[in-house]
Amino acid sequence: MDRDEIIKVLRAFEAAGLEYVLIGAAAMGIHGVVRATEDLDVLIRATAENVERLQRALRQAYDDDPRISDITAADLLGDYPAVRYYPPTGDLYFDVLTRLGEAARYETVEADTKVIEGTRVRVATPMALYRLKKDTVRAIDQQDAAALRERFGLQDGG
């Protein structure tokens, strides 16, 4: 992934006032637990206005890519609240979600605000990331949960 591209997008998120929490491997990396990834996982507040802010931010970052219009409130607020956006750069992609089943929504994921190159970034806490990953069936999530548990001394009850 291109760090400059990520920073550009995060700045656009901030400028648009997007209500989001960065989750997944990129969030782990911000906390110092690094593993390779090709995407940014973004959990956003589930409102039509916030989806509009997401579109505005992505248009700013990706020169009005017409495919951004394919990201709709109808999709993100519907039965399958996830979309994948592939920017024209081809260097990374975005998994945008408004909820993860019954396990998590924007409002329920504990997050901190970090400052990265002068940009405020909402990122899930290590414990929130651990909770999101520990009970999934994907092997990579199990490995991530173990790495988070070890690095931060996390326990299931804490």
What structural class do helix, strand and pairing data support? Answer: alpha+beta
Helix content: 25-40%
Let me know the largest β-sheet: 4 strands, mixed
What's the β-strand tally?
8
Number of helices: 6
Global geometry:
globular
Overall residue-averaged pLDDT value: 94
Strand content: 15-25%
Order of helices and strands: HEHEHHEEEEEEHH
Strand order of the largest sheet: 1-2-4-3
Set down the secondary structure blueprint:
Layout: H1 3-16, E1 20-23, H2 24-30, E2 39-44, H3 48-61, H4 73-76, E3 82-85, E4 93-97, E5 99-100, E6 104-105, E7 111-116, E8 119-124, H5 126-133, H6 139-152
Parallel strand pairs: 2-4
Antiparallel strand pairs: 1-2, 3-4, 5-6, 7-8
Provide tags for this entry.
single chain, 158 residues, alpha+beta, 8 strands, two-stranded antiparallel sheet, four-stranded mixed beta sheet
Walk me through this protein's architecture.
39% of the residues lie in helices and 22% in strands. It is built from six helices and eight strands. Strand 7 (111-116) and strand 8 form a beta hairpin. It is globular. The model has no long low-confidence stretch (mean pLDDT 94).
Report a brief summary of the structure:
By secondary structure, this protein is α+β, with helices and mostly antiparallel strands. The chain has helices at 3-16, 24-30, 48-61, 73-76, 126-133, 139-152; strands at residues 20-23, 39-44, 82-85, 93-97, 99-100, 104-105, 111-116, 119-124. The strands form three sheets. A four-stranded mixed β-sheet has the order 1-2-4-3.
